[in-house]
User: Fold NADPH-dependent 2,4-dienoyl-CoA reductase from Kocuria varians.
Amino acid sequence: MSSYPHLLAPLRVGSVTLPHRVIMGSMHTGLEETPGGEHELARFYVERVRGGAGLIVTGGISPNPEGAAREDGAHLSQEDQLPPHRTVTDAVHAEGGLIALQLMHSGRYAMHADAVAPSPLRAPINRVTPRELGTEEVERTVEDFAHAAALAQRAGYDGVEIMGSEGYLINEFLVAHTNHRTDRYGGSDAARRRFAVEIVRRVREATGPDFLVMYRLSALDLVPDAQEFEQVLALGREVEQAGASIINTGIGWHEARIPTIATSVPPAGFTWVSRALRENLSVLVAAVNRMNTPEIGEAVIARGDADLVCMARPFLADPAFVEKARRERPAEINTCIACNQACLDHTFSGQRMSCLVNPRAMREDELVLGPTRTAERIAVVGAGPAGMAFAEAAAVRGHRVTVFEEQDEIGGQFQLARRIPGKADYGHTIRYFRTRLAELGVTVRTGHTATTEDLADADRVVLATGVTPRIPGIAGEDGPTVLGYKDVLEGAPVGRRVAVIGGGGIGFDVAHFLTHDPNADFYREWGVDRTLEAPGGLLRPEPTAPLRSVTVLQRSAGKPGARLGTTTGWIHRAELRMADVDFVTGVEYLRIDERGVHVLVPDPGLVEENAGVSAPAQHHGARAGHDDAARGAATAVDTAPGKAELLVPADTVVLCAGQESRAELAEQLTGERPVHVIGGAHVASELDAKRAIREAVELAASLP
Assistant:
C-alpha cells in the first residue's frame, strides 16, 4: 500500500485525467526571453516529466507587450510566436506529460516605461509609475488574454493558468488599494471583480470546454485596504461559473510585509486558507506555499485542505520528486530548503533560475554527469556542502570515492544552519546526502581527521575542508565572556545581554537564534489573521518579547545585512527589528572586558542621542515591559574630533567576524596527482553554499 494514497491518486479534471494530485507550479526560469531558449526549457521540463511530474505550469507569459515584466519580456500575442512554444509542448507530450501556459500581466510590477495599471499608482517595490488604462484598453486587455489562450491552445498547451494573484494586474483591479477607478471596472466590489471574471469567461469561450483553465486567485492579499474574505469567495464563485477548471490559491502580494514562501514560513503554512475556499466552492482547489515533502502534500489533501497541491521549487531541487515518492523512497528526495538564493533571487535580478541544492537545474545539458572513461580512486576531505555534493556527483559518474570528515556527522556548516530558527529544512539536505552516499557505495569515515597517509593511495584528492571562524584581533577577545558563533549554536550558555561582533549573514543568524522564542506564533508575530475576518488577512504584528537583549556591531558604515539575499534580506532585517536588536555601524574595536565591548564610533552627537547606535543608525526601542535595566545604557565618551568611545554593555560577546579558509593540507600533498580545493576552503570571504555546491558538481562533471 502506498504511503501517499491521497497525493498519488489520479484526478479527473474535465476531459483530462491527472496522474496524481501534484501540480508543478509556475517558475519564471529566465529562458522564456532567451533566443533559442526553448530547447533548454524543453529539456528542463522533460527531465521533470520523466521524474513523475504530471501537470506542469510554465513561467509567466504576458498576453500583450505592455504586460511583460521587462521591456524585452516574454509575451504571446501573434501567430508567428508559436513555433518555440510548440518545441516545448511537443517535448513534454512525447514523454507523456501535460503542460499549461501561465498568462501573467505584470501590471504595475512591470519594470519598463510602458507599464499600465488600473490606476497610476507606483508599487513600493518598483521605480516605474504605471499609466492608467482607459476603459477601452481594459476591454482590449480582456480580449488579449482570450487571444493568448487561443494561441496557447494552438501551440499545443493542455491549458492555461490565469495569474490573478501576487499583486499583478488582475489582482490590482480587485483591491481598492490599487483600483481608484470610477468606470465599470471600479468603484464597487462587483465592478472591481468584473475584469477577472470577464477574462475567465472569454478564455473559456475562446478555447472550448475541454481546455484546462486554471485561475490563480489571491485568497489572502496581505496588503492594506485589501479584499475581505467574503469578497474573495464571491470572486471564486463567479470565476467558477465563468468556466474555471481549477482554482489555485495565491497568498500575498510581492510587496507584502509578511513572508509567504521563505524558509521562515511554517511548512504548509497557508493551506488553512485553501481549505476555507474549498469548503465554500464546488470547483477543484489547489494549495500552495511551503510544501516540500510528499508527507506534507499527503497530509494537506488527506485532511481536506485542498484537492491538489501546487509545488514549484521542489521540482527544481529534485526532478524525480514524484517518482521517488511513488517508489517509496522519500529519503532520496533532494528537498527544497526554501532559501530562495538561486531561484527567486536569480529571477528578480534578471539571472537564469537554478537551485542551491541542485545546480544542474536549468543546466541539464551543460552540467552532465555521464559515465567516466576512467574510474579513479578519489579522496574527499571534508563532508560539508561542497564535499558531500562532489562525492555524490563523482560517484554517480562511476568513481570510487572515500570521504574523510573530522566531525562525528556529515553536514559541515549545514549542521549549524539547521539550528537557526526557520532553517530546520537544511537538515533535509544532510539527510539526502547521507542517503545518497550510502546508496552509491561511497565510503564515509566520520570522526577522522585525514592525514597524508590516508590519502596516499588516492588518484585524486579533493579538499573541501571548509572554513574556520576568523579571529578579529581585538584586545580581550580571549576573555571568559567571549564565545565563537559555533559554540553558541551548539548550545554554550549565553548571558542576558549580548554583543555580536559582525553584521553579516552569520551575525544576523546568531542574533535571531539568541532572541527568538521557539514557542512564538508565526501568524501573531507577523500579523496574519487566521480567522479570515480582517481585510487582506492583515493584523497589527504582535512580536513575542525577545529572549535576550542583543546589539550587533559592524565595522562598515553601510546598511546592516546589505549582502543578504535579494528576496529574503528584508525578512531577516524585520525579524531582528521585531526582536529589538540594536545595530552599531562604522565601529572601530578597542577592547573587550567584563563590562562589554569598547568601540570608537563616528559622530558622537548622534551616538549620545540614540544611546548606542551610530550613523547610519537603526534603533528599535524596547517594547513595553522589556527590561531596559538588563539592556543597559551604551555610553559615549569624547576621545577625538568626530569620534567617540562607546561602551556596549554585554554579559556575552559572540564573534561572528567572518571566516578563513582551511586548506593547509594542500601544502602537504606532493606528487603528480591532482589536488583540488573547493567550497569554503577555496573562498571563505562569505559562507556561500550555493557557490560551494555548484563548484563541487562542476568539478565532478569536468573529470575525465
